[in-house]
Amino acid sequence: MDQMKGDNYLMRGQRRRMVEDLKNKGIKDPRILEAFGKVPRHLFISKGFEEWAYRDQAFQIDCDQTISQPYTVAIQTDLLELEPGHRVLEIGTGSGYQSAILAELGAEVYSIERFSKLRDTAIANLERAGYPQVQVFYGDGWEGLPDHGPFDRILVTAAAHETPVNLLRQLKIGGLAVIPLGKAKSTQKMYRYRRNEDGSFSRTSHGLFRFVPMLKGKT
Ligand code: SAH
Questions:
Q1: What SS3 state is found at 17?
Q2: For residue 88, what is the domain's CATH number?
Q3: How far is the CA of 193 from the centre of ligand 1 (A)?
Q4: Helix (H, G, I), strand (E, B), or coil: what is residue 94?
Q5: Residue 154 Cα, ligand 1 centroid: separation in angstroms?
Q6: In a domain, 199, yes or no
Q7: Is residue 108 part of a domain?
Q8: Is 131 in the pocket of ligand 1 (CB under 6 A)?
Q9: Is the CB of 97 under 6 A from ligand 1?
Q10: What tens digit of pLDDT does each residue of 8-60 get?
């Protein structure tokens, strides 16, 4: 991926420091750290902000949304326990950065975004960064993608105010879904749901985070 258009020595250096930062904050999985070392985050944020791209911070993108903080992306990715070839549904494409991390880890990624403008930018970002295989859909994530399921993994990157049951129905037996649950404009609890052999779900909680809200409908 080092040869991708728009990457350079300076960005690679900053990226290596971001990976060190994630390591110091407790991210241990070498495959995940390697993926963060490869995906060019500066291609997923607005022009003019490239020099900030490798700080462990969320940034504003179009439509009043955000590209998640790298640490949050790393935690969610870690909780997914991804294997290469997994079919993964992501809700909230945003910039496309999280989708690129999943694709770099070998997942077959389906991602839904409710703003058509963000969908278009994310497709362009993913193409430029070297992940044209990610499939980005314009739609309402609360519905999921029933025609493309079931999925091995489901990842929600916006705050759901209630359990998105339609999504959970699209999870394979043995599959995992990582979903921040809670009120908007507050912190949300990160939950991981596992679909049991009998089709039921069990869940565990994994700390507090802050996401933009998962809204109903597309715009
Ligand atoms: N994964 C993104 C994070 C973007 S922030 C990244 O790496 O950049 C969350 C995104 O979820 C926003 O772009 C927002 O528009 C989107 N979103 C919120 N509710 C949604 C819904 N119901 N369906 C699809 N996308 C939704």
A1: helix
A2: 3.40.50.150
A3: 20
A4: coil
A5: 14
A6: yes
A7: yes
A8: no
A9: yes
A10: 899 999 999 999 999 999 999 999 999 999 999 999 998 888 889 999 999 99
Stretch (H or E) spanning 73: helix 70-80
pLDDT digits (tens, 9 = 90+) for 155-195: 999 999 999 999 999 999 999 999 999 998 899 999 999 99
For residue 116, the enclosing domain spans 58-209
Does residue 7 sit within a domain?
Answer: no
Residue 86 backbone zone (phi > 0: left; psi -120 to 50: alpha; other: beta): beta
Number of H helices, E strands in the chain: 6, 9
- What distance in Å separates the CA atoms of residue 36 and residue 21, rounded to the nearest whole number? 11
Across-strand partners of 188?
209
Residue reference for tokens 């420091």:
17
Structure confidence at residue 5 (pLDDT): 64
Q: Tell me whether residue 71 is in a domain.
A: yes
Quote the CA–CA distance of 164 and 123 in Å, as a whole number: 25
| Active site residue ranges | 68
pLDDT tens digits for range 73-89: 999 999 999 999 999 99
**Under 8 Å between Cβ of 60 and 52:** no
How many separate domains does the chain show?
1
Evaluate: CB of 68 within 6 angstroms of ligand 1.
yes
